[in-house]
Specification:
The complex is a heterodimer of chains A (481) and B (264). Chain A is α/β, with parallel strands linked by helices and 481 residues long. Helices cover 25% and strands 34% of the residues of chain A. Chain A has one domain. In chain A, strands 5, 6, 8, 10, 11, 13, 15, 16, 18, 20 and 22 form an 11-stranded mixed β-sheet that branches. A 10-stranded mixed β-sheet of chain A has the order 4-3-7-9-12-14-17-19-21-23. Chain A has a two-stranded antiparallel sheet with strand order 1-2. In chain A, a hairpin with a 2-residue loop joins strand 3 and strand 4. Chain A is globular and about 65 Å long. The termini of chain A are close together. The chains are: A alpha/beta (481), B alpha/beta (264). At the A-B interface, helix 10 and helix 11 of A face helix 2, strand 7 and helix 3 of B.
Chain lengths: 481, 264
Amino acid sequence: MSTSTQTIEQLANREYKYGFITDVEQESVPRGLNEDVVRLISEKKQEPAWLLEWRLKAYRTWLTMKEPTWGNVTYGPIDYQDMIYYAAPKKRPALASLDEVDPEIRKTFEKLGIPLDEQKLLAGVAVDAVFDSVSVATTFKVKLKELGIIFCSFSEAVQNHPELVRKYLGTVVPYSDNFFATLNSAVFSDGSFAYIPKGVRCPMELSTYFRINAQNTGQFERTLIVAEEGAYVSYLEGCTAPMRDEHQLHAAVVELVALDNATIKYSTVQNWYPGDKEGKGGIYNFVTKRGSCLGVNSKITWTQVETGSAITWKYPGCVLIGDNSVGEFYSVATTNNRQQADTGTKMIHLGKNTKSTIVSKGISAGHGQNTYRGMVKIAKGARGARNYSQCDSLLIGDRCGAHTFPYLEIKNSTAKVEHEASTSKIGEDQIFYCRQRGLSAEDAVNMIVNGFCKEVFRQLPMEFAVEAQKLLGVSLEGSVG
Amino acid sequence: MLKVTNLHAGIAGREILRGIDLSIDAGQVHAIMGPNGSGKSTLARVLAGHPEYVVTAGEVVFDGQDLLSMDPESRARAGVFMAFQYPVEIPGVNNAYFLKAALNALRAHRGEEPLDAMDFMVLVRDRMKQLGMDETLLNRPVNEGFSGGEKKRNEIFQMAVLEPRLAILDETDSGLDIDALKVVANGVNAMRRPDRASLLVTHYQRLLDYVVPDVVHVLADGRIVRSGGKELALELEEKGYGWLPAYAEASARPANAPDARGRG
């Protein structure tokens, strides 16, 4: 084995930095799933009858569905009756200030380096922290409120803005959409809600940190973001989770709605526990994210940096309904050790002159398997639609794999669709070149990988981009030779 | 400054260097010449620490340190620079950014403060001007889409910025037009200082019209078969390598001749 391979290995063997468990009393519903559990969740959250009905419809539909098997991932059977579907920290006072947050939870956030304080305001970020399914702190609401922006937990939105939730919930990802989304619709616990009124440009990056904590609790977040006519919002989602021995299921749903001339940027840095070197433990991340460009000239941009999870199964997509609407997808997905990722996007062109751009960068190291799966669909009425797709794979070492499955469905002859794909290997020669100039092998790999991902990182908000670069370095530790 | 004693090295189980002895003093420029397959580039790569090459015997002392026990980055930080025969492309990594990271890695090793972007740009502009190079090279990804000549110029530019103690140029002159060749020569001549040395690996005498070496060595079949002053290069140019008795003997040996070719 060459020295550079050894270095890559050392990098890969670095321990997961965020593995710890917070000792906070949890309030859980009994293990397993049935109609009573669905009713119990809804009751605990004091939901209106229509929402309970919606959950029950989803649950009944879910019973008729089968877990999808088309993904290019392998994992043992998931026992849906052996999971706990709801957990909330027991102490749940109405919080007037951060001081009232459970000190244990605050400590956890501090360990994670989440500055849940005024510094965030200076950084221009409002944080809605989701701790195990329930929001415990929301900041800067006042500032946002002045502009008429609603940014709160999903549960709060159900209580305080039921008309908005009812109007948009399930309009982008219907409750019957797919096995995991349907399960989420039945049992979703909490998540975030953002509403940007007409003509308002949200002055700060809205950001949510998710964290899975309670043992054996699948997390089923539900996020809904609505940008009214001419509104603009940039939303950041960053995730870490503590170390666990058992696989944990995570099946989130995110729905975005952009009306006329509205823009939504949704950025994710996902760093859930990937499992150990042998593939033990780690999060199963089965996520449905979709945006609807409902209005003319609307625009939705998904940017994701996926470094964590044992299994990643997600295809953030855009339905381009409004004429001239734009959908974009920028993705970096890394798999190391035994991680598997099957990720990509769906761009559905319905409106005239709609445009989509897909840039996907897959990095595989160790025994990691990385699959790009993308669909571009151009409907009959989508005159002048255009798509550009670029899928690049980078391999580190010789035991990993990269796979590309592009699906194109074009029903309008005026459409222009371009697809480019490449696969390259980090060469010993590249690493030697960098080392000959005085850089360590580790720095060399980081530099090469970050160069490879540049087009995607460029899309991230500044501070997030820096974080993403660091994260990439950590997740590829030990992978170069 | 550099003392190579009885160096044996090879790649993939095949011995290429068969006992090199070489001594370079500070302030000197040495040229290594020889036919294809003689082991010139192998010598350069072994000195730089290329991981694919295995040293089987001998020692190399650089500034009193055991060079062979050091990893490539430590050699670089100690002042060994190699201009690559085939410079590698690093897509997406800005040339200036790369060079700044390299320079600051060297500075950190010497216990110096890193250069900030402003000071770095001042230094870089100065070197570019000195070498008559185009500033647009700075903002392009490292070597990506560079022409052969641009890549070689970029190597010399890096050398000028990093200011190594010992510069090894691995056939940097091959395939260059006269202008690019002059840039390379300028770079090497600018390196000529009492505390620095250069080792030019070259196939042709051409570069030596612009850089006058102190010592010329002829390498054949993994050994230095002859050393001399600058006039040796001219003699080689005129007569080729065939007249060297040791070379003739070596090329008659069947084991090395075919597979050693192309490694330069």
